[in-house]
Amino acid sequence: MFRSQLPSVDATAVPADAVLLDVRENDEWAAGHADGALHIPMGEVVARLDEVPEGARVHVVCRVGGRSAQVTQYLIGQGRDAVNVSGGMLDWEAAGRPVVTGEGADGFVL
Questions:
Q1: How do strand 19-22 and strand 38-39 relate by DSSP bridges?
Q2: Is the dihedral angle over the CA atoms 88, 45, 98, 106 positive or is it negative?
Q3: Is the N or the C terminus of the chain less surrounded, counting Cβ atoms within 10 Å?
Q4: Which strand ranges, in their side-by-side order, compose the sheet holding 82-86?
């Protein structure tokens, strides 16, 4: 299957300065997200593709990795350098990586 060959990394392996695209819904994002991440809900990625930086590897994240895998596959199909963050924001949070709200307070993963 194609999905098994999809490039992926663990949350702990995402560089601190990486382009991180969070494709979760607005309520999930508001509860907590990675500081500095770009938020484009999965259903808006096609319409907002121009907002996804070109020329840099894009690390795509959702809650557990399913939605982000689909978006990663789409981005690769568009010629982008994209990689799925396996385990998603749940693994990100479990690894002790910072999760913040829009106000910069400590957040949590829905």
A1: parallel
A2: negative
A3: N
A4: 8-10, 82-86, 58-61, 19-22, 38-39
3-state secondary structure of 53: coil
Give 18-65 pLDDT, tens digit per residue: 999 999 999 999 999 999 999 999 999 999 999 999 999 999 999 999
Residue tagged 């396996």 (tokens): 86
Catalytic residue check, 42: no
**Phi, psi for 26 (deg, rounded to 5):** -60, -40
pTM of the model: 0.94
| Nearest partner of 23 among 89, 78, 77, judged by Cα | 89
Size of the chain in residues: 110
